[in-house]
Structure to design on (282 residues):
């Protein structure tokens, strides 16, 4: 049976390091600040934002929250971001997605100063990531890379198969694996014979948002499986994009859902915010 890659344990370890960094910054009169902007009433977003707020508090980051109504106009949101861009107390700005339909998400994300874009979604930061000189690395892919590092996985020469091509996970994690000299295949809805592609992978990174789409018997013996998917099945059950139990028979190590990649996402957001505060304090 596969080793379980426990995201909660690793997140806890990194958060301790973040706390000691914020304590050191505080001795120099600096408190890292994160502004979180939530527009509308999306229930999942509300839960996520309150988790971020608690996580900030736990590690010593100042959290400034803006909960705006669904009727907020695009112009009002852009004005708020402009104000946060100019606020020296704020080192990171995070606009919770999805935004209401009348607001252009791209325009909003591009209005955040790249040096405060702790989510790593600004085209400037996406470009820097691709050329191997990242300012901020997007939080979920960054968390995935930390997990692989923690497991002692050396990616050089390995076959990595990424399922999903979103700008938030699939594309950036593929770029990060390439920078570590992996041979990377990106699969998506138009990929022919997905099973054959997955079967050749030394490392499988699933980020497609389809419950248990990747069958357990597709996993090569000894492969590492990182499951980014979180899918609700029925009232209470959460499952990943990979058939967990069946995959565990073949994989050397696998992330559970929940308790795998999830805790790492917020942790890397905290990490990026503190890194931003360190840069501006020099």
């Amino acid at each position: 049976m596969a080793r379980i890659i426990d995201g909660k344990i690793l997140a806890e370890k990194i958060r301790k390091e973040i706390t000691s960094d914020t304590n050191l910054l505080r001795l120099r009169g600096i408190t890292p600040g994160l502004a979180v902007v939530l527009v509308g009433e999306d229930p999942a977003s509300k839960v996520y934002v309150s988790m971020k707020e608690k996580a900030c508090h736990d590690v010593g980051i100042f959290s400034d929250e803006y909960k705006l109504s669904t009727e907020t106009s695009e112009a009002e949101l852009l004005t708020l971001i402009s104000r946060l861009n100019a606020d020296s107390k704020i080192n990171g700005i995070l606009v919770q997605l999805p935004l209401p339909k009348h607001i252009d998400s791209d325009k909003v994300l591009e209005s955040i100063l790249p040096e405060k874009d702790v989510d790593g979604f600004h085209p400037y930061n996406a470009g820097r990531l691709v050329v191997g000189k990242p300012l901020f690395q997007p939080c979920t892919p960054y968390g995935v890379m930390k997990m692989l590092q923690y497991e002692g996985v050396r990616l050089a020469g390995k076959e990595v198969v990424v399922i999903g091509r979103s700008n938030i996970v699939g594309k950036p994690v593929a770029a990060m694996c390439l920078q570590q000299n992996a041979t990377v295949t990106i699969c998506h809805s138009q990929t022919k014979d997905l099973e054959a592609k997955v079967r050749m992978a030394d490392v499988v990174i699933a980020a497609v948002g389809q419950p248990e789409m990747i069958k357990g018997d597709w996993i090569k013996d000894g492969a590492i499986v990182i499951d980014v998917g979180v899918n609700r099945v029925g009232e209470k059950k959460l499952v990943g994009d990979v058939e967990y139990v069946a995959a565990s028979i073949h994989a050397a190590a696998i992330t559970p859902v929940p308790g795998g990649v999830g805790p790492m996402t917020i942790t890397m957001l905290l990490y990026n915010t503190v890194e931003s505060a360190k840069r501006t304090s020099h």
